[in-house]
Amino acid sequence: MDVAVLGLSIQDKSEIIDCMYEMEEPLLLSECVESVKIIESASVPLIKLKINLQKLTEREISDHMKILSIDIIFDDSGISEINEYWT
Q1: Which end of the chain is more exposed for a tag (fewer CB within 10 A), N or C?
Q2: Extents of the domains making up the chain
Q3: Angle at Cα 51 formed by Cα 30 and Cα 1, nearest 5°?
Q4: What burial letters (b/e) apply to 11-44, b meaning 16+ CB within 10 Å?
């Protein structure tokens, strides 16, 4: 699953990376998060997140569905459209 964080006013790649490290600790504090990996060297920096869905429910989840992998990127390209939508 891919997730884009929108609506931030980010000027350059170093700011994106700073935001990613700012998110890392709160994510790791969540009981359901198995791992957080920040990939700075990619052309579009991203966070690779693994969530253990079994820890979110008492219902049994099949083995092939237990771990949800999410790639998170920061995208400010749509900031003007977002601002227009909310105003």
Answers
A1: C
A2: 2-86
A3: 130
A4: eeeeebbebbeebeeebeeeeebeebebeeeeee
Residue 20 has pLDDT above 70, yes or no: yes
Q: Which residues pair with 3 in a beta bridge?
A: 72
What is the value of pTM for the model shown? 0.76
The region that residue 12 occupies, defined by phi over 0 for left and psi between -120 and 50 for alpha, beta otherwise, is beta
d(CA 54, CA 56): 5
Hey, which residues does 33 pair with through a beta bridge?
Answer: 51
Which residue matches tokens 């400010």?
76
| Beta carbons within 8 Å of 64's beta carbon, 6+ residues apart | none
Distance, in Å, from the CA atom of 60 to the CA atom of 67, rounded to the nearest integer, reads 13
